[in-house]
Every structure is written in structure tokens, then in C-alpha cells.
Design brief:
Blueprint: E1 4-15, E2 18-29, E3 33-37, H1 44-52, E4 56-63, E5 66-67, H2 73-78, E6 81-84, H3 96-103, H4 111-117, H5 119-123, H6 134-146, E7 152-156, H7 164-177, E8 183-186, H8 190-196, E9 199-204, E10 207-213, H9 214-218, H10 221-228
Parallel strand pairs: 3-8, 3-9, 6-7, 7-8
Antiparallel strand pairs: 1-2, 1-4, 4-5, 9-10
Helix pairs in contact: 3-6, 6-7
Length: 236
């Protein structure tokens, strides 16, 4: 069993005074991909945002043995927490190259790794990001996070709204990325979770209600239906 790179204890978070994360506790292994699962509206995205300090939060968050819950977001990022937000948050008026340059935190970013992973972006370096397809913008969002030497990536709904072919490309990129950095992944597409995730955390009612191997959930239709309210059947 891999030791934990990130631990979250009794995390509570709120937006505009409304509680969106009740009391969440879990640990993320230092290798592989850990999926955060749950029905819509249970606070999965808010949990990631709470870890990063993007919303008001309480609780203990530890990264590689160091508490980071009292730090502002930019300090947490500097400690090595990469973030791929659900809405991508790319700069539409800048080129692909400019977006990547802004994301680099060191003088020696992982450009070769990113270029090999996203050859389509290499060909579009001079293109304005606002003219990219949704899938290309998602690739860019992931690429920005991978430029830096992070200790963990928080990735939120990376395949949401994408065509099946692009979903597969994004999943393949994350699978390759996980070879060099552990990933905490919020993802509704259970086929993607089945392909990528080693472990899973299920949130319901504002609490973690299940942790364990991802296949242990997805291979048990009764458990999947009870915890997620959906069928785990994978269509070819």
C-alpha cells in the first residue's frame, strides 16, 4: 500500500455562507489515480476547491507531511498542487504558447513531456486559445498543470461535455501523466474511472461513505447503484 501524499481530515467548506462540504476525511496514495465519486451536488468539486483554499474551509489538509490548510491558494500551488478546473479557465485571448508560458512556475518546465503528450497543441502554439475546440482547450488545461513539478494533481471533470473520441484522448493523457504524478480525479464517466482509477472515494450526504479499490465499486452493480445511483455497466 502506497503511503499518502495528501490527507484531508474533517474538511468543511462553504460558499457565501452556505455549507457545501459537511465533514470529509480521506487520504490519497502517493501513486496512481484516486477517483472522487458521488451523485451530482454532493460536494465533489467543492472538496477540491476547499483543499486549494479557493472557497472558505475548515479542517486539516496535509501535503507530504506538511499542513497546508492555513496557506493561501497561491502558496498551496507553489508547494506542488496542480489544478485542472472543471471550466478549464484558459485565457481565450492569448495563444496556446502564451497560456503555457504563463503556467510555468520554473525556468525548466516539462516542455518535452507536455509536447510529446499533446502533439496537437504543438501544432497550434500560435493559435488563439478561444478558437480551439472544447477538447483542445481541455488538453491545454491539463498541459498547463503538467508543465510543473507537482506533488499531486487535482483534476475536476476533465471529460465533461466532450465527444467520445476526445474523451478517450483526455483519458489516455491522464493515464500517462499518472506515471509521474499522483492524481485526485473527480469524474462522472464511469468508463473513464474504470480505465484510470486505482482507488475511489465516494461522497454522499456531505461525508465520505466508502473508500477502497475503484474496481471494488464498479464491479459490484448493487454497490454502484446504492452509492452512485447509476449502473456501472460499461458499453463497448
Amino acid at each position: 500500500m502506497s503511503e499518502s501524499i495528501l490527507t484531508v481530515e474533517h474538511l468543511k467548506a462553504s460558499i457565501a455562507g452556505q455549507q457545501v462540504v459537511e465533514d470529509v476525511t480521506f487520504a490519497v496514495p502517493a501513486t496512481g489515480i484516486t477517483a472522487v465519486l458521488g451523485r451530482n451536488g454532493v460536494g465533489k468539486t467543492s472538496t477540491l476547491r476547499g483543499i486549494l483554499g479557493l472557497i472558505s474551509r475548515q479542517g486539516v489538509v496535509t501535503l507530504a507531511g506538511e499542513r497546508i490548510d492555513a496557506l493561501p491558494t497561491h502558496r498551496i500551488v507553489q508547494r506542488g498542487v496542480g489544478y485542472v478546473p472543471e471550466d478549464r479557465e484558459v485565457f481565450a485571448s492569448l495563444t496556446v504558447a502564451e497560456n503555457l508560458a504563463l503556467a510555468a512556475r520554473t525556468k525548466s518546465p516539462r516542455r518535452d513531456f507536455v509536447d510529446a503528450l499533446f502533439p496537437d497543441l504543438v501544432a497550434r502554439r500560435a493559435q488563439l486559445t478561444g478558437t480551439l475546440s472544447g477538447g483542445q482547450q481541455q488538453m491545454l488545461s491539463v498541459a498547463r498543470a503538467l508543465l510543473n513539478e507537482n506533488q499531486i494533481l487535482l483534476v475536476d471533470e476533465p471529460t465533461k461535455g466532450l465527444a467520445p473520441k476526445i474523451v478517450a484522448e483526455v483519458a489516455d493523457a491522464l493515464q500517462e501523466a499518472a506515471k509521474i504524478v499522483p492524481i485526485l480525479l473527480v469524474e462522472q464517466n464511469l468508463e473513464v474511472v474504470r480505465q484510470l482509477a486505482d482507488d475511489a472515494i465516494v461522497i454522499a450526504g456531505g461525508h465520505v461513505v466508502h473508500t477502497g479499490p475503484a474496481r471494488g465499486i464498479l464491479d459490484d452493480p448493487t454497490l454502484t447503484t446504492r452509492l452512485l445511483g447509476v449502473s456501472a455497466e460499461v458499453h463497448s
